[in-house]
Amino acid sequence: MSTLVVSLPQESATGATEWAYALTADGRTPADHGKCAAALLPLPRGAGAEIVAVAPVQALAWHRVDLPKGVGPGSPRLRAALEGLLEERLLDEPEALHLALQPGARGGEPAWIAVCDRAWLRTALQALEGAGRTVTRIVPEFAPEGEPLLAVIGDAQQPLAVAVSPDAVVALPLSQATLPLLPQLPDEAPRLAEPAVAAVAEQLLSVRPELQQAPQRWLNAARTRWDLGQFEFANSSRARAAKKLAAGWNGFLRAPAWRPARWGIATLVVLNLIGLNAWAWKERASLDAKRETVRRTLTDTFPQVKLVIDAPRQMEREVATLRQLTGTASPRDLDALLAALAEALPAGRTPGTLEYSGTELRAGGLGLSGDELREVATRLKPLGYVATTSGNNLVLAVEDVR
C-alpha cells in the first residue's frame, strides 16, 4: 500500500501553489519527496493507496475541553456543544472555523479540540481535488499526544520551535527571547531539528539535536489516529472518495495504458455471450426433440388423437379409457388401492373408514404415529403409490411420475 502525504500550505492555495509532499510504500520511509504543482504530485498505487493531507502546526490551535456526558463522535449535538464550550476562547466567529474532536473522545471526559480556518482548509482540499488528488484523511503535523519532544523546523532565517507533550502543542519563533516561554520538557525528551536549522538549534538550545527531515515528520503524523476531516469535511470526504472511484473508472475506460485490458475484457464478455447462446440453443433443441418424441409416441399409439396439447396427460387418459374397455385393472382401481394399503399397513392396523373418489383412497381411524406414517410411505413407494395425510386420514394415490 503506497501513501502520498501532502503538506498543506500555510497561505490560501491558488493555481500557482507548490505543494511539498512525501511518497512512501511502507508508511515509514519516504520513497520520494519534493515540491511541485498539484497536478504533478505523484499518485499512490496499489490496493489501499491513500492521500493524506498534513495541516501545518502554524494553522492549528488547540483547546482542552470537558465534553458533556452523552456527547461524543457521531453525536448530532457535537458541533453545537463544541461551539458552546469554546465560545469564550475563540478569536473568530465559530462559523468561520473548523473544529475537529480528538479520536476516541468520550462524553464526560476531557478531550482536545483542533481549530483551524474553515475557508483555508476548504480551499486547499478543493485545489487538490481539482488536480485529481483526492484527500482521504487530514492529520495535524503535531498533536498533543505521545512522548514529549521539541522540534525545530523551518529555515535558518525564521526557525520555529515546537514543544509537544500530552498537555500542549506550543509553537514559537526560536530565539533567545522566546526560549523561556517554551514549556519545560524532560531532559530525556528528544530534540529534533531539520538540517537547515540544526546549527541555529544547537546554538540556542545548547544541545546537539537529532536531524529529522520534514518528509519523515509528515509520515510520522500520517501514522497517528487523528483525522481532522469531520463535520462538513467528513461528508465531503465521502463525496470525494466517490469522485475518486468515478475518476478511476473513467481512467480505466479511456486511458491508453488500459487498452489491452479493455480489449481482453470485451473479448471475454463476447465469448461468454456466444457460448451461453450456443448452450441455450443446444438445450432448446434437445428439449424440442424430446417433446416431439412424446407427441409422436402419442399419435402413433392412439391415432384418434388429432390435437396434441398436453401429451402426457392425454396419453394417461387414453390408457385409462383403453383399460376400461378391455377390463384391465388400473393402479387407481379400488381393489388395487386396497391391496397396496393392506400390504403397507403395520400388522393389526385396520382403517375405521374408507372413502374412494375414483382416483385416490382415504383411510381413517388408523391412529398411526409419525414414524409409522413414514414407514407406510416407504413401503408404498416401490408399489407406485404415494401416501399423504389430510387431517386424521391417510390419503393413498398413484404416484405422478411425469
UniProtKB/TrEMBL annotation:
Residue ranges of every copy of the GspL cytoplasmic actin-ATPase-like domain listed in the record: 36-141
Query: Which Gene Ontology CC terms are recorded?
Result: Gram-negative-bacterium-type cell wall; type II protein secretion system complex
UniProt-listed Pfam families: T2SSL (PF05134)
Entry's InterPro entries? ATPase_NBD, GspL_cyto_dom, T2SS_protein-GspL
Segments crossing the lipid bilayer? none
Q: Which GO biological process categories is it annotated with?
A: protein secretion by the type II secretion system
Q: Which NCBIfam families match?
A: typeII_sec_gspL
Descriptive protein name: General secretion pathway protein GspL
* Native source species: Ramlibacter agri
Identify the taxonomic lineage of the organism of origin.
Answer: Bacteria, Pseudomonadati, Pseudomonadota, Betaproteobacteria, Burkholderiales
